[in-house]
Each structure stands twice: as C-alpha cells, then as structure tokens.
Design goal:
Structural class: mainly alpha
Shape: globular
Strand content: under 5%
Distance between the termini: 24 Å
Order of helices and strands: HHHHHH
Number of helices: 6
Helix content: over 70%
Oligomer: single chain
Low-confidence stretches: none
Mean pLDDT: 76
Number of domains: 1
Length: 119
C-alpha cells in the first residue's frame, strides 16, 4: 500500500529506506520540541501550551507535505521569528517592528511554498 500511495518504486526507494529516513529525520528535528518552547518561555509564553502547539504544528506540516504534496520534506515551526522576539524580550533590544518580524516570517513561508510547488 505505501509503495503505491507514495510511488516509492517509481522514485527508486523502498518502505525500509523511507522508514529509516523518517526515523533519522525525527531524531534530527526532535530538538525543536525543547528549544522552541524555551524560546517562547523567555518571551513570556507558558511552556506547556507552546510545547503542544510546537508538536501539533510539526505533525500537521509533515503530514501535509507527505500526503498532499507527496514530498519527503519535514516541516516544523519557523524559529527565526521566535528567536528574534525572545531576544528582544530578554535583552530589551529592538530588531525591528512587529510588522517587520511578521513580514520576515510570511516571506519565508511564501518562499518555501514556491520551492515545494515548483516541481
């Protein structure tokens, strides 16, 4: 079933290779489960809800990429904007307005969508 759904033979892969790749990607990305809530906690957001939101957004993004786009790309919450915001809150440094930070995050998302859809 997975071979037909994801066209593994057509792409020169197998279920075993994909499972190993998925496990490797999870281990590589698991740091975000700890780091993202820590950054958000420094900005005054509770750790529990931010941990759940981090996990759910990563699961949703990865499932969307796998089942809708049929691409082996792991997606996790965008951390650059959170790091900028957390740094400002801790060090009282302004890296730009709120609008600038939102703009950077939005353009990052647009660029990634263009990259994914340009197959």
């Amino acid at each position: 079933m997975p071979e037909r759904l994801f066209k593994l033979r057509e792409r020169g892969s197998s279920v075993r290779v994909e499972v190993i790749g998925g496990a490797t990607t999870f281990v590589t990305m698991a740091y975000i489960i700890v780091v993202n809530p820590a950054i958000l906690a420094a900005a005054g957001i509770p750790v529990g809800p931010s941990t759940v939101a981090t996990i759910l957004s990563a699961v949703f993004g990865c499932l969307l990429m796998g089942f809708y786009a049929n691409r082996p790309i792991a997606v996790a919450p965008y951390m650059r904007g959170r790091a900028i915001h957390g740094r400002e809150r801790i060090h009282r440094v302004r890296a730009g307005s709120d609008g600038n930070r939102v703009g950077v995050a939005a353009w990052g998302g647009v660029c990634q969508r263009c990259w994914v859809c340009s197959d």
